[in-house]
Amino acid sequence: MDLDWLLLATGFTGGLTFVHYVRKLQRWWVKPPTVDVRFSPKGGCTDFLVKFIKGARREILAQGYSFTSDPITYGLIDAHKRGVNVEILLDRSNDQDPHSDLHIFLENGMKPLIDAKHAIAHNKIMIIDKKIVVSGSFNFTNQAEHENAENLLVIQGMPDLVNAYRENWQHHKEHCQAANPTVSSARAGRRAA
Question: Among 20, 29, 33, 87, which is least packed, fewest CB within 10 Å?
Answer without folding.
Answer: 29
